[in-house]
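Now for our target.
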Amino acid sequence: VQLQASGGGLVQAGDSLRLSCAASGRTFSDYSMSWFRQAPGKERGFVVGITRSGGRTYYGNSVEGRITASRDNTKNTLYLQMNSLKSEDTAVYFCAARNGVFAYRPVQYTYWGQGTQVTVSS
């Protein structure tokens, strides 16, 4: 499956932003999807994941309550709604797909989007 992330940009602290990840090439609903992020000098970390049906989401410790993941299997698209953004949310955000049940670790994901930069100014 090919993934194309979009929607990043430069925003101010407290703003909201919605990222999208468009999938193509395979049956989107066969894949568990997650968002990861990587700040300069840091490892790629888990942000939020969503099951194949979209019925359940899993959140990283630092984002729950401010970030929501959703998916539209009819549009083959994954979304990341981020509210009350903080400077520490600055990172490149990656969407990733895994054929099968949900998993937390980046190494468990086979397909990756190219990443979209989110910069939050304080």
The chain has a mean pLDDT of 95. The longest strand covers residues 91-99. DSSP finds no helices and eleven strands in the chain. The CA atoms of residues 98 and 108 lie 7 Å apart.
